[in-house]
Every structure is written in C-alpha cells, then in structure tokens.
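Appendix B, record 7
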Amino acid sequence: MARDKGSARARCDAHGASGEKDAPATAAAAPCGCCASGAATPAYKHTLRSEELKKSVTCRLNRAIGQLNGVKAMIEGDRYCGDVLTQLAAAESAVKAVSRMVMREHLETCVVERIQQGDTEVVDEVMDLLRKFGA
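Structure tokens (predicted):
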C-alpha cells in the first residue's frame, strides 16, 4: 500500500489511485482487499480513511438514522405533518453534512492525487458529483 502524504489514506500499488489495473504490483506491497481476494478485477474502488473521519462520519450518520427512526415513529403515531416535516429537514441536513465531509476528503485526497498523476478525467467525475449534490 502507498501512503498519501502522511495521511491515513492509502491506495493499492497494483491498481493505483483509480482502482484499475494500470500498474504492476510490487513484491513488497501488501495486497489490498481486491488483490487478496484473487479477483481478476477489483469489485470497487476503495479509499482508506483516517480514524478521525470515520468516527465523525459514523457519529453523524447515527444521528441521521436516529432522526429517521423518529420520523418513522411519528408517522406510525399519526403525528402532525408539520412536525414530521421538521424532523425530515433535520435528517436531510445531517446527511448533507456527511456528504460535504466526504466530498472534501475526496477533493483533498483522491482528486488531488489523480490530477498530480496527470489524470484530468477526474474533473468530469467531480462535476458529476457536484451535479448530484445540487451544486
């Protein structure tokens, strides 16, 4: 695995930053999950994240899940529509906050690395992601 500038993010030496077979594996490199499985091609791209980011994202997701469970209970309990909508807005806001965190991480790590490697196709990927999030 290759470390990215001291961060907790790493990439598979056999697949590079893009997750595709584009470089031979080095003998000293530990296999990633897709290599260790013996699969001819990786099942998905992967990014190792810092424990701090994982903890923060997990906490926010758990909060959103709790809010959605609350909305479900409100619906089952025939609660007032305005109250339900307020809780839905709070859950949506929590999910958007997680999306912003993951997007920032993606831009600061994956995108920067691919551009530094001369892969400008990542710009199209970023534009598609921004469109999905209403930017």
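Remarks on this record: Helices lie at 33-36, 51-76, 81-116, 122-132. Confidence is low (pLDDT under 50) at residues 1-39.
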